[in-house]
Amino acid sequence: MSNADDVYRATVSELVANFRQALLALIPVAERAQINYKDIEPHRDWERLAECSFDVFVRSPIGADRTATGRELPLARYDIDLADYLKVSWLTPYPEAPHRGAVVRLLSRDTPFDTLQVVRVDSESLLAGERITLPIANATLALFRRDEAGAASVLSTVEAIE
Question: Strand ranges (DSSP E) for 12-162?
């Protein structure tokens, strides 16, 4: 690609921060429409808004990354509890054992969406295990990208091509 303006460079942490900012911006509108966004019993329409925002601000740039070969396993869907991570790539806290934790969703503790819910992933079986929470402010995130052949890599920065 010859035009540098056609490349969007961002860290995976920045992509998730953009997603979080989108969710925060939607809160006033959701509240006026009586769409609950809070962790306990979120409205189905909030879940749809959140997943769409995740797709726009996280999944799309990752999918357009210039290093992608087209053989990558898809990124795990936002806010979906999986029994295993055999057929997906995932976002992970980094650099601490990136293959061992997958981000499932953002939770609200002190302020809206200030906490990551992470499921531990068994390094051998890729089965989902216990859930832990981490403050988003202290987290550095990466993409644990897996491909059809079983190869894996850790990406902390994305260069999305339009």
Answer: 90-93, 101-107, 115-121, 128-135, 141-146, 152-155, 157-161
Closest to 90 measured CA to CA, from 67, 47, 80: 80
Query: Is residue 14 classed exposed, middle or buried when 0-12, 13-18 and 19+ CB atoms within 10 A define those classes?
Result: middle
pTM of the model: 0.92
Domain boundaries, the chain: 4-161
Give the pLDDT of residue 1.
39
**Rounded Cα–Cα distance for residues 95 and 60 (Å):** 23
Beta bridge partners of 90: 144
- Alpha carbons 161 and 150: distance in angstroms, whole number: 25
